[in-house]
Design brief:
The protein is an alpha/beta fold. It has two domains: 82 residues, no CATH class; 192 residues, 3-Layer(aba) Sandwich (Rossmann fold). The protein is 45% helix and 13% strand. It contains 13 helices and nine strands. It has a nine-stranded mixed beta sheet, sandwiched between helices. Helix 10 links the parallel strand 7 and strand 8. Helix 6 packs across helix 9. The longest helix has 16 residues. It is elongated, with a radius of gyration of 21 Å. The relative contact order is 0.11.
C-alpha cells in the first residue's frame, strides 16, 4: 500500500474504532483542493497542524486532521488483522477501485471497499440481481436464470448475499461455473473463502450486520452492475424497493424487472424500469441493444463495454 492510500485510509476509515471521527467525502475533497495549491515540504512527511492552518483551516479542524494522520500504528494493526483474514482494502485512490462506482456515486461512493477474494472481479463486466427474501416460485426461477445466464455469458454476477433472490442467483451462477461479487452487510472476516467469489464490504472487514449497513450497500450493488435485474419487490416497502427506486431516481443504471404481473413491478415500470421475462435472458447482448435509447448518465459508455464483451 502506497503512502497516498495509507493517508486516505487514515482520513476516512474507522479502523475498527467506531468512535473515530473520520472525514466525510466532502471534507476530504475540500482538503485535496487546498493541498493542490500548497508548496510541497522540503522533506517527505505527514501534514502537520501548522501546515493545515497555513491552508486556511481553523485550529480545531487542523488538529483533527493532523491527529487522524498520526495514527499510523492503529492503521498498521488494522491492516495486519485484515491480512490474516485475507481481507484487503481498495480505497478510492487505489488503481483497483471500480471506476464505475466512483463515476456513478460521486461523493457518495464508499471511501474504501474491503475485499475478500480477487479484487480484479470488481472491474469485470457484470450484471446485478436484487430481490425479496421470500419469493414466489416463478420469481425464484427468474433469479436462478439470471445467475445461470451471467455465468454462461461470461459476466460477473453482483448481488447482496441475502436469503432469497440473492443467494438463489449466486448459487446458480456458481453451479454454472460463473463468478460472483457479493456485497455483504455482515462481517467480511467471517465469509468463507471461495475461489470464484469476491466478498465486498464497506468501511471495514470486522463490522457486524445492521439494517443501516444493509440499506447502504444497496447503492454499491446498483452502481457496480452494468444492468440491474429485479426478481421480486414489495410495493413501497423493503430494502429492494428502496434500492431500486433510488437507482431509478438518480439514474445509476438500467433496471430490468421480472414481468410477474405485480403492482410493484408495474409501478417500477412507470418510474423507468423495463419489464422482462425469462426468455429475454437468453441473449443479454440483445437485451442491451433493445435499451440503446436509454439516456441514463454513464449508460452509453457501459452499454458499449457490455456490447463489446457480449457480442
Amino acid at each position: 500500500m502506497n503512502p497516498r492510500e495509507r493517508g486516505f485510509l487514515l482520513l476516512v476509515s474507522h479502523l475498527g474504532n467506531p468512535e473515530r471521527k473520520v472525514l466525510t467525502m466532502a471534507q476530504l475533497r475540500n482538503l485535496a483542493g487546498r493541498i493542490q495549491g500548497m508548496e510541497p515540504p522540503e522533506e517527505e512527511r505527514a501534514l502537520t497542524a501548522a501546515d493545515l492552518e497555513a491552508l486556511g483551516y481553523g485550529p480545531e479542524m487542523a488538529g483533527r486532521i493532523s491527529s487522524l494522520l498520526e495514527e499510523e500504528e492503529l492503521l498498521e494493526r488494522y491492516l495486519l488483522r485484515g491480512r490474516r483474514m485475507d481481507c484487503i482494502p481498495v480505497t478510492r485512490v487505489s488503481g483497483a477501485y471500480p471506476g464505475i462506482v466512483r463515476r456513478r456515486l460521486g461523493l457518495d461512493s464508499p471511501g474504501c471497499l474491503w475485499v475478500k477474494g480477487d479484487p480484479a472481479m470488481l472491474a469485470s463486466p457484470s450484471i446485478a440481481l436484487v430481490g425479496s427474501r421470500e419469493l414466489r416460485p416463478e420469481n425464484g426461477a427468474f433469479a436462478r436464470e439470471v445467475g445461470r445466464q451471467a455465468a454462461v455469458q461470461g459476466l460477473v454476477l453482483v448481488s447482496g448475499n441475502a436469503r432469497g433472490a440473492d443467494r438463489i442467483a449466486q448459487e446458480a451462477c456458481l453451479e454454472a461455473g460463473g463468478r460472483v461479487v457479493s456485497i455483504v452487510a455482515d462481517a467480511l472476516e467471517r465469509c468463507p473463502a471461495h475461489q470464484r467469489i469476491a466478498y465486498v464490504s464497506e468501511d471495514g472487514f470486522d463490522l457486524g450486520f445492521s439494517a443501516q449497513r444493509a440499506l447502504s450497500r444497496n447503492r454499491v450493488i446498483h452502481a457496480l452492475g452494468r444492468m440491474v435485474f429485479v426478481a421480486q419487490a414489495r410495493l413501497g416497502r423493503g430494502g429492494t424497493w428502496d434500492g431500486v427506486t433510488r437507482n431509478l431516481r438518480l439514474g445509476l443504471s438500467s433496471v430490468a424487472c421480472f414481468r410477474d404481473g405485480s403492482e410493484a413491478m408495474a409501478e417500477l415500470e412507470q418510474m423507468g424500469a423495463f419489464l422482462v421475462g425469462v426468455e429475454d435472458l437468453q441473449d443479454l447482448g440483445a437485451l442491451v441493444q433493445s435499451m440503446q435509447n436509454i439516456t441514463l448518465p454513464g449508460w452509453e459508455e457501459n452499454k458499449v463495454n457490455m456490447e463489446t464483451h457480449l457480442l
